[in-house]
DNA sequence: TTGTATGCGTTATCAG
DNA sequence: CTGATAACGCATACAA
């Protein structure tokens, strides 16, 4: 009875607050706050009493209140094209792991390659007063840029790298990846090299890769050859590319660079079924190094993006900006990552 | 000068607040709050003025403050074994999509199949006063259960289903999946059927599947045959299982059920290299239906878990509990999902 | 090292 | 339909 009769507050979660702990420990509430944030500044005697009170009351700090009071919550928002895609998940995973090791939480949203959805996500995230924000790529709406600029917090663009951008960038040059693939095939002696694009609208990075390919072709005195599938799903699009480019009677493609491994994989399956010898009759190069790529027959030659590294390094840069860890030198160079061309059987 | 000379607050983000909007619109701040939360309760005239003020001030609601005042933030925490895994990502994606359509944000953490890491994540999440919490599976630490119980918010366990659990469950019975695989192979006439486990510690669900398999074997008067790989990576473990079980001289396995498709895939590759005819010499069944499974040679017969559906339905149940959408009937039955056995070439 | 007063931006309560 | 006031739980500024 008596313990229940304590005048209950009109609102509130009913959970113990920092004041309850302070009262139980016989200290000021600010000391409890320090006990969590700057333990070194609290004497051993008080620390002990506070620890006991915390335990007996099952105290859990209210992070929202803390964030409100300190104007920035220990939260970082991340907008990624899609969570369940074969590659971005690794970035999310490593990013989240590094952050949570330092007491920051990940707030996640997906844009499905739509800059408008990205804008909506950024807008919502800012409502949480996040400590930092991560977006994918360098293509955003005007309003997103405006929001990012006025937010006055660290912003990182991942999965791309362009010189002289305003925000921190952690990624690689898609343009150079396109060049890399084209050079590789040219060196192998292929001439009739096509580039099969993605039917997903909004994947601007794939366009950059295509342009890198095109420029290398022109340098070599060859005409770039673009194929834009009309099929909706990657599976159908890859098949369509294979049928259109490699199975034509005259002037068939000797090699095809695909916008990603999904397309390339379905092309290999289609080719296999049609009895096309790969790479002799048609060489295939992908992008992404998805899990299945090494298991195909022929195994897929592809370019591996540093997905996990991107997440890790982005998190580190943010923690540096936030003063959580000492700053690295030569950040500029560290942020520009390299992709690896994995030479397998298909090219 | 004059516009800058407005006495600046000592603290704060510098962003416009609800009071700024109220002043600009000539209304009380609570009316602005209502304008966002219950637009129907605000007259058209005031709504117009508020809308203008919001726009001109670039007002963005501070969600942390709102969450603090209303004791529950529009946030839902989700703990998942791993984000970058081949199947959970789909659950995350669909869960996040449904939630964000209703103005809830996803706070994500991974446990790596460790109940201790799960506990830590739950603890942190609770600090945000989330509207609801989602965990994976039914195995938790005592402290986690305690936290979940006292949190007094909707809790959903995903990726599993056991009768008479305390929390809402959205998933399927791993035990029945194990039974399903065993029955399928027995029906095909296989007798010497082994189960290759996962070397990842903490994957309790895989144990449930194994037990389902074992019981069906016993029912059929056959001895269950467990193989526990020592190899660390799934790739090596699958290969090891194949070599140990199917390539032995005498009494080799006629069929192997693998704890997941990663193991099964590497087994198929190893078998292929060793010239083992599948399924004639050894049939293979996986679990998960990962992206590469249909691309293998032979394509992998596997059991597809309803990953996307789990995320969707979990989100719906939460939104129902929160009163955001009308409640469904027969929730009990709806939450028990079925896995589909995909009959392909390997078994 | 510790404590007091006050503000963070919003919503619940209650009154018009 | 609208508004004044007081929480929400914590951290900053400043003082002791």
TrEMBL record, chains A, B:
InterPro entries xrefs: HTH_LacI (IPR000843), LacI/GalR-like_sensor (IPR046335), Lambda_DNA-bd_dom_sf (IPR010982), Peripla_BP_I (IPR028082)
UniProt-listed SUPFAM superfamilies: lambda repressor-like DNA-binding domains, Periplasmic binding protein-like I
Domain HTH lacI-type: 16-70
Pfam families attached to this UniProt entry: LacI, Peripla_BP_3
Record bears the keyword DNA-binding: yes
Keyword Transcription regulation: yes
Keywords: DNA-binding, Transcription, Transcription regulation
GO MF term (any one): DNA binding
Protein name: LacI family DNA-binding transcriptional regulator
């Amino acid at each position: 009875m008596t313990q229940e009769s304590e005048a209950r507050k009109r609102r509130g979660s009913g959970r113990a607050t920092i004041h309850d702990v302070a009262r139980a420990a016989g200290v000021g509430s600010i000391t409890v706050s320090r006990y969590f944030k700057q333990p070194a500044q609290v004497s051993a005697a008080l620390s002990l009493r506070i620890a006991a009170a915390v335990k007996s009351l099952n105290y859990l700090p209210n992070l929202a209140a803390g964030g409100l009071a300190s104007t920035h919550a220990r939260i970082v928002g991340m907008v990624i094209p899609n969570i369940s895609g074969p590659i971005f998940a690794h970035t999310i995973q490593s990013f989240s792991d590094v952050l949570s090791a330092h007491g920051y939480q990940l707030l996640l949203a997906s844009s499905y390659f739509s800059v408008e959805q990205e804008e909506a996500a950024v807008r919502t995230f800012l409502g949480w007063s996040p400590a930092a924000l991560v977006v994918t790529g360098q293509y955003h709406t005007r309003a997103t840029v405006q929001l990012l600029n006025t937010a006055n917090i660290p912003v990182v663009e991942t999965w791309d790298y362009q010189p002289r951008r305003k925000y921190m960038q952690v990624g690689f040059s898609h343009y150079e990846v396109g060049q890399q693939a084209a050079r590789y095939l040219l060196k192998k002696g292929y001439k009739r090299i096509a580039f099969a694009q993605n039917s997903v609208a909004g994947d601007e990075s794939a366009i950059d890769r295509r342009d890198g390919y095109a420029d290398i072709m022109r340098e070599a005195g060859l005409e770039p050859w673009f194929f834009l599938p009309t099929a909706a799903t990657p599976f159908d699009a890859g098949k369509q590319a294979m049928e259109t480019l490699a199975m034509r009677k005259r002037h068939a493609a000797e090699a095809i660079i695909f916008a990603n491994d999904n397309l390339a994989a379905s092309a290999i399956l289609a080719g296999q079924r049609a009895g096309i010898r790969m790479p002799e009759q048609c060489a295939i190069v992908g992008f992404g190094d998805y899990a299945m790529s090494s298991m195909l027959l022929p195994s897929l030659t592809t370019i591996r993006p540093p997905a996990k590294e991107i997440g890790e390094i982005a998190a580190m840069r943010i923690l540096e900006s936030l003063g959580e860890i000492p700053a690295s030198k030569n950040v500029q160079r560290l942020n520009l990552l390299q992709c690896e061309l994995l030479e397998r059987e298909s090219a």
